[in-house]
Amino acid sequence: MSQLFAVIGNPIEHSRSPMIHQSFARQLGIDLTYEKLWAAIDGFEEAVNAFRERGGRGMNVTVPFKLEAFDLAERRSPRAERALAANTLVFPDSADKPVYADNTDGVGLVNDLAFHGVTLDDKRILILGAGGATRGVLAPLLEQAPQEVLIANRNPERAYGLVEEFRDAAGECRLSGSPLEGIEESLFDLIVNATPASLTAQLPPLPDGLVGAHTVAYDMAYGAEPTVFMQWAEARGGRPLDGLGMLVEQAAESFYLWHAQRPDTTPVREALRQNIRKKADQEE
Ligand code: NDP
Predict the structure, then answer these.
(1) Which residues belong to the active site?
(2) Does pTM top 0.85 for this prediction?
(3) How does pLDDT run across 8-55, given as a tens digit for each residue?
(4) Which atom of ligand 1 is closest in space to residue 133's alpha carbon?
């Protein structure tokens, strides 16, 4: 019998999770249905309960419900506990067993960087943004033992707050915060844009001297064309990467939680890239 899964968010129409999970399932011969589920801003729990009543076995959770998903669960992975946010829920087959929450965003980013041959050991990392995505990836990045992580945010208080919260996970790594407009000009090995600025073609105010020939500029956003942030970095000699691979890798980790099987992400990355380009061509 086909198992039922979904991605829940508001908005949700843009989500590519159904395509990704259906591709993984075809690859591994698993029979599943994967839906897009829209929920009202104040209707997350109600939507989850209705989905469970229909037999739903798992859910990916996107903006703005990751904190609520964490709160709703009775059991959580250490990485979800660390982030206080969840992007994956596992529903038990009976109501008396606990709902399990995990956060696969961070491992998604680290695995995508590894896919591209980017290692983080002893590296200098700059993260732009201090929202849910940064919260989700911080601990997995710190686990890779970088030399330094600087979090720069428009509202610097949020960056300083994350620094305090994650200080105990930093180990030897120098972890600090900065206002976005006051980043000290020095070379970084990796700059992660964890703001949605690229989605509206906005470029955060960044000094030129952050990027050198060895700098990887990773935008968590993605599209048919390189984002403005990627173009900015490439023009300065950096290596641009977008967040499509992170999306596929975090999905693969959720898939593993639900099905205990690991899909090959390479063909799914390629299919998704083609699909995004085709859609953009059709819209022109
Ligand atoms: P949040 O809304 O939680 O946080 C957004 C952050 O970006 C805040 O720190 C905010 O600053 C900052 N910000 C927003 N707009 C601008 C702007 N125009 N210029 C500069 N800073 C800005 O969002 P998330 O952290 O959940 O998501 C961030 C991005 O990452 C989104 O684009 C999301 O789609 C993407 N993402 C991609 C994933 C993937 O798999 N590829 C996974 C998860 C997220 P302030 O605090 O000052 O408001």
Answers:
(1) 66
(2) yes
(3) 999 999 999 999 999 999 999 999 999 999 999 999 999 999 999 999
(4) 25
With the most atoms of ligand 1 within 8 angstroms of its CB, the residue from 17, 105, 127, 154 to mutate is 154
Pocket of ligand 1 (CB under 6 A): 63, 105, 108, 129-134, 153-155, 158, 180, 194-197, 199, 202, 204, 220-221, 243, 246-247, 250
Reduce the secondary structure of 95-156 to three states and give it as a string. CCCCCEEECCHHHHHHHHHHHCCCCCCCCEEEEECCCHHHHHHHHHHHCCCCCEEEEEECCH
Which CATH number applies to 3-103: 3.40.50.720, 3.40.50.10860, 3.40.50.300, 3.40.50.150? 3.40.50.10860
Q: What is the DSSP letter of 195?
A: S
